[in-house]
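Consider a concrete sample entry:
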Amino acid sequence: MVASVFIDGEAGTTGLQIRQRLVGRPDLAIASIDPAKRKDPAARADMLNDADAVILCLPDEASKEAVGLIRNNRTRVIDASSAHRIAEGWTYGFPEMDKGHRATITGAGRVTNPGCYATGAIALLRPLVAAGLVPPTYPLTINAVSGYSGGGKQLIAAFEDPSSPNATTDNFRLYAMGVVQKHIAEIQVHSALGIRPLFIPSVGRFAQGMLVSIPLQLWAMERHPTLEALQSVLAEHYAGEHFVTVQPLEETLEIGLASSLDARNPEPEGLNDTNRMQLSVYGSPKHGQAVLLAKLDNLGKGASGQAVQNLNLMLGLPEGAGLN
């Protein structure tokens, strides 16, 4: 049986990437709305209600409106916006988050696709909090850098089009310096943190790719976890996973001239155009300090790739279809 899929907002960055991953698949039929009727509520409602699955690639308020147009209990929904990431009745769409979470996604009618930064932060923190190595009340700081594609069409134009009103020659910039950012709430909720983390995002002059890093003062933690303990918990949690891998500790601790360049100086673009995420533990046993690191493609595992992974699960299709 061929499932019908409607991408509402397919002209945006995430929508285009999702469509590229779905087009040509014999198990799916992609439905598209007449461009002249994209803002016609009745036409959109017909598309939303006729599809087996809908992927919303819209601003938050438009996503809420689209969900309100669905009048049946049959259409499955994946929302790529931040509108429902901590909302009741929605399943968080990070399949590797917990053992058994795939089954929850498979049976869900409403799945909220995680944010790109949040995917990396939660992947690192949730297993460590659950294991008691990172206390839920520890004052966490999360640093991250993303390619400019994560900012949508306006930021892409600012970096790529010199004639854009917001054109920039910046190579790097921090943002959200008022420490208010839409990913913070979902990171806190889905990492099971008792207090709000401090999150410092940034953007660099590269189109896509991402690093999320979390420094830890191990000596200040109640259980004084070792680097070995941190890596072991992550490795056990993600053992057997295809899309999420954990670097062996010897690759990150024995940093020297013989080490790979990426091990010595992690760079954000290494997993571009994939749905993969690599987790690593760096640090100094002598000084009791660690750095947790997640590397992923902000448009892959951080957005469109993960949406396709969730879609496959919801429709009972091979999880890696369109992603390998």
About this structure: Residues 116-298 form a domain with the Dihydrodipicolinate Reductase; domain 2 fold (CATH 3.30.360.10).
